[in-house]
Give the backbone structure.
Amino acid sequence: ASAQIGVTGLAVMGRNLARNFARNGFTVALHNRTEARTRELVEQFGHEGDFVPATTAPEFVAALERPRCLVVMVKAGGPTDAVLEEFAELVEPGDVIVDGGNAHFEDTRRREAALRERGIHFVGTGISGGEEGALLGPSIMPGGSAESYEALGPLLERIAARAPDGAPCAAHMGPDGAGHFVKMVHNGIEYADMQLIAEAYDLLRKVAGLTPAEIAEVFRGWNEGRLDSYLIEITAQVLTHTDADTGRPFVDIVADRAEQKGTGRWTVQTALDLGVPVPGIAQAVFARSQSGRTDLREAAASLPGPHPGGDGGAGSTGTARLPEAERARFAEQVEQSLYAAKVISYAQGWDMIRAGSREYGWGIDLSSVAAIWRAGCIIRAAFLDRIRAAFAERPGLPTLLADPEFAGELGRAQGAWRETVATAARHGVPAPGISGALAYYDGLRADRLPAALTQAQRDYFGAHTYQRADREGTFHTRWGGDRGEVRP
Ligand code: NBP
């Protein structure tokens, strides 16, 4: 036994994670169902550090120092269960098995409980940053027992990305499914963020008449300010890219159907179960689904819009180009709207993490979540440090919108934000994320909501009862009779 850590499953993610451990000075045991992958890794990257390749699972387990820490990086679902079953037979009580795949947190809870029975620490961990992150430093969100983190934490913190203040982007999120839950919400926020950026681009293009290259320039400018983030940065890169075949902007030759692998859907499904409002994430998931409904889009393509004769897609003749001074002013207005809507999406994400943590008794530190998303992950952004600070100062903060700094910013952005929503509607440009975020803001702000009417309707047709705003108790009105009020 000589390896401090083992990785089984050496496809893109596992291979890069193994290399990352080795480059950081750890001796890494390697294993993969198909042995060729193990051999390839050693042939290509063996010089990067100390690897102990194993042909069989028992050989792999025997190569590990105790307590053994082994990371499973295989396809999520059935393959993960099969591999866990295999290794559960080979390890000993006190050993730590890590699932670094994209598992559903309920699966992680189930697996953790089953392995705990056998004295094995099971750690379901979210890993974000894709292929490159796995190699150069991902954001790592482990769940599991505190004891398992004692053994595993130092290794994970060594290979994780570093935040601008030097802190590692890995931290113990909580027991059993906490890590995979946090990763799921991370992906939900990622969906919302991408949708908002896409809407901002669409408005700049269709309302202001900017070209993709000009919009890239605008995004580069935004990336210098409070919107500074990985997603804004890559958006500028994508918008600058020209298709080699046609010479056209790359964004114009990609079919406008956004696909999804499922973590956004999981987030929304879970939010529905928990009763947490995450409309920004839901809008983003539905926007992707709607984009792929070619049948609906074809059937509705001839519906009239606000500029009859040509308010169609990019470059259509209906798109007028605003005068230069107006263009700059509009870009500034869209920046305010994008930023405000982004804050709203993150507020919804944190609300969901808090709700999940309460429901499952995880005790997730909301500040720590922001801290480990500051680097390495897809939604890394400068403003996450302010979210970290907001929850560090007030762990009981009911919503990010109650933080004085964020509240002040939203208040200052709201004029521009409302104007953008109105402009989008006037121009017939769909902006469900930006406008939905404003509705969430106004919905929380409102002194009275029409929910009173909804509840009254429920009492009318279903005798569902209601509470009164002016006194305690539960009431019902005899709608079909004398309309007298009773206390059932
Ligand atoms: P894949 O998800 O494509 O899985 C391929 C690996 O699973 C190979 O090592 C393969 O072995 C192994 N495997 C399969 Br498939 N069935 C198996 C079985 N029954 N028994 C043993 N091994 C089996 O790899 P990936 O893209 O590197 O992703 C790994 C995990 O990380 C996934 O859960 C993924 O969702 C997650 N993840 C991926 C990313 C990303 O950017 N790709 C990011 C974050 C998380 P073989 O070589 O013998 O076929």
Observations:
- The first strand starts at residue 5 and ends at 8.
- The chain has 20 helices and nine strands.
